[in-house]
Design goal:
alpha+beta; Aminopeptidase; 7-stranded mixed sheet; 5 helices; 7 strands; 25% helix; globular; binds coenzyme A
């Protein structure tokens, strides 16, 4: 993995210490169109899930962005329509959120967070990292590290957005 420039720091978190980053993570949800934003409740629910993990990226100590993932369980598998693309498997980590503040985008930070998601998921013993990706730098970066698109969902829950569902094997063949 590429080493981080000295002014950047990745700080992993779990459900136990997630609250200290909640205000910044919540504020940075403004980067999404309103219909796609997470709330405090949905972020807490995500971090309360089985084997939830996350990280923030700090630049000179200031918050830049976050990632959140968790083990794929039956309800997100069904409710997020992943059952269209793959069977339920608890060894799949689901990338629930990845966001970089608008003024910090386009400088490789999203890729750094994605690399960190891969590292954390692999360290936790997951076999696969999956997620729904908007057709922007998010999907671009995931395909660039070896992710494969399994299918698309148009008009994601009435938001008008198309999301691709894609997965990366964590056995070392992808990155
Ligand atoms: C998606 C996001 C996390 C990416 O972070 P970022 O720091 O902007 O991205 P990076 O600088 O790491 O990567 C940019 C790469 O994507 C490419 N890119 C930028 N905009 C793109 C677009 N609209 N479509 C395709 N590729 C795009 C760039 O050319 C660059 O590619 P390269 O590294 O091969 O040159 C960030 O843009 C973001 O927070 N977006 C809003 C929230 C969001 O959509 N999150 C994803 C939810 S699935």
């Amino acid at each position: 993995m590429n080493s981080l420039p000295p002014d950047l720091r990745l700080v992993p978190f779990t459900e136990a210490d997630f609250s200290r980053f909640l205000p910044e993570i919540l504020a940075s949800e403004a980067v999404y169109p309103e219909a796609l934003r997470e709330t405090e409740e949905s972020l807490r629910e995500a971090m309360g899930r089985d084997r939830a993990f996350g990280a923030v990226l700090l630049e000179r100590g200031a918050y830049v962005g976050n990632l959140i993932g968790f083990a794929l369980e039956a309800d997100p598998h069904r409710d997020l329509l992943i059952d269209r693309f793959r069977p339920l498997d608890p060894k799949v980590a689901y990338l629930f959120n990845i966001a970089i503040l608008p003024e910090c985008q386009g400088r490789g930070h999203g890729r750094r967070l994605l690399d960190e998601a891969v590292r954390l998921a692999r360290e936790m013993g997951f076999s696969t990292l999956g997620g729904h990706f908007r057709d922007n730098a998010s999907l671009h970066n995931f395909l660039a590290i070896g992710g494969r698109e399994l299918g698309r969902i148009d008009d994601w829950f009435g938001t008008g957005e198309t999301f691709a569902y894609a997965e990366l094997p964590l056995d070392g063949s992808g990155v």
